[in-house]
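Appendix C reproduces, verbatim, an entry submitted by the partner laboratory led by Prof. M.T., so that reviewers can inspect both the input and the predicted structure.
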Amino acid sequence: MGGIIMKEPNYIQIKSKNSITKLIPASAISHKGKRHLLILKAYLFIFFLLFFFPMSSESKAQDSQQLTAIEVRKIIADGNIRWGKARVEFDKETFEKMLAPDFYVLLGDRKLTRKEFIDQISTQSPGVKLTRFDASVLTVKPRGDEWIAVIHEKLEIETVNGKIYSLWITRDGWKKVDSEWVITFSEAIGYEYWRGGEKPLFTDW
């Protein structure tokens, strides 16, 4: 018959600097030392939870949906200021940061991939210069794990044949990924151009 190995109760393993493990009776450890051990165990447990069970995508989505429309409007408005500056400066690095990996553009029945769109807006044509890109947020609405915003864009382009004014209305998707907000898609709802000396018939242009 196999014997039962009895362990002496209330012993704690202590590992010294030279990697020698010793068994020390719990009674030999002061009350303060026990409290420190409990605090250390609590920290280790919290670290374990954060490392092995990170916040799920569903939780992140719920986090972004807890924001109010006013807060999201401000976030998207600030993002559009950054985007407009990048467009005028042909800042490809900012384009890469602000567009989601699966970003796409819809222009009627035409669909542009993320790469196609970035290549297009990063290339400056000879004799053509984008001098203005202002965007304002008209509406915001939550949809799933993202927010849908209707955007009003004003563009001005200098060419060798004169100035071109361009008005675009787009429907854009914005989503919080980790700690950053990115654009998930952009759909052109409508647009109009004025050229040959014509100017937009808007008092606020």
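The longest strand covers residues 128-143. Additional entries are available on request from the coordinating office.
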